[in-house]
Amino acid sequence: MTIRVAVVLVTHDxxxxxxxxxxxxxxxxxxxxxxxxxxxxxxxxxxRLLSTAGFSVLQATSQALDTxxxxxxxxxxxxxxxxxxxxxxxxxxxxxDVWHSDRxxxxxxxxxxxxxxxxxASDGYLIDDNSVAEPGTIRESFPIPDDFANWPHRKQMTYxxxxxxxxxxxxxxxxxPWPTGRFRQDGCTTDGGAxxxxxxxxx
Length: 203
Known about the structure:
Layout: E1 5-11, H1 18-26, E2 34-39, H2 46-52, E3 56-59, H3 67-84, E4 89-94, E5 97-99, H4 103-113, E6 119-121, E7 124-127, E8 133-137, H5 138-141, H6 153-162, E9 171-174, E10 199-202
Parallel strand pairs: 1-2, 1-4, 2-3, 7-10
Antiparallel strand pairs: 4-9, 5-10, 6-9, 7-8
């Protein structure tokens, strides 16, 4: 079965780091079918860079004042736009991430092997402003119990709704009939931490 893949980025005055992010998306071994960006009132060259890279650029509609809530709203807006565009899998990214070249192929394969899974989250490295990897991984910032992969799905979801398991920028979501209400960015399932790193995010 062919999986239609969308990439969703959220941006705000991102021109410094965005070119490297866009290049890493363009260099994927599996190309996305749809690329969407939710831009939150950028005053720099961000919208132009996105448009030049082929992204559909939508203006953020969130009215939230809290930054974390606003970012979550922006991701939700992007997920809903990708679902409306007919995407089967929606891969999320931050404006300053550098994706491994096989991120899309790897996450698509995970969904194909596990069709009942609604969300996966891969690991990644933190990098400095010179794109040099720092010690540790994203997974180490979101520890999970050693036997998490063996838990029943209900127990995994309960744990996921009460703890941060991953960063949204390393996640991919199956396109479901999403409700129009709230979307919890830190409630997700993982494949037990077995994923290879998907990206490197700036610290």
